[in-house]
Amino acid sequence: MPEIYGKLYSHTFERSMMGAGPVVFATWAWVLSHAGYRDLVNLNPKTLAQQIGCTTEEIERSLEYLCGPDDYSSSPVLDGARLERTGPYEYRVINLGKYNSGSDDIKYREQATERQRRKRRRDAGLCESDGCERPPVSGAHVCSEHAFTVENQ
Ligand SMILES: [Zn+2]
Asked: Rounded to the nearest whole angstrom, what is the distance from the C-alpha of residue 152 to the centroid of ligand 1?
């Protein structure tokens, strides 16, 4: 699994969450960094309180704030709330794509890794299918057995 991360926009401090308090910002940074390319995060307020260095109650208040309406948001979804509680310890980041275009970077890196893997196997004279020790069919990147099972890219 690739290392996950999130992007934090500078306008978060100047507009929508201005003056919300350090724990709200810390909680939001935690959520974005853990959301990665999924929009659901598993989040235990007790664990967050330990990691951030505050009380569990402060984390719970921050989560309430982040699940509340955002007057500055142009999103009509849930009055512009940033988070939606979907389970006892599960939250959905609303509009993750808006906050986190980093998910494209992760996809790009995964594709680049896959291209490198295929190139290494081609350079070694092997079929591109992982673990296959046969040489590729002349003019192709895979052996006769994998010719119809490996996606051509
Ligand atoms: Zn093969």
From this structure: 13
CATH class (in words) of the domain with range 11-99? mainly alpha
The domain ranges of the chain are 11-99, 101-153
For ligand 1, the distance from its centroid to the CA atom of residue 124, given in whole angstroms, is 13
pLDDT tens for 25-46 read 999 999 998 987 778 899 999 9
Q: Which residues are placed with Cβ below 5 angstroms of ligand 1, an ion? A: 127, 129, 132, 134, 143, 146
Contacts within 8 Å (CB) and 24+ apart, 61-70: 61/23, 62/21, 62/23, 62/24, 62/26, 62/27, 62/28, 63/27, 63/91, 65/20, 65/24, 66/24, 66/27, 66/28, 66/31, 67/91, 70/16
Per-residue confidence (pLDDT) for residue 80, from 0 to 100: 77
| pTM value > 0.70 | no
**pLDDT (tens digit per residue) in 141-152:** 899 888 865 444
Distance 23 CA to ligand 1 centre (A): 54
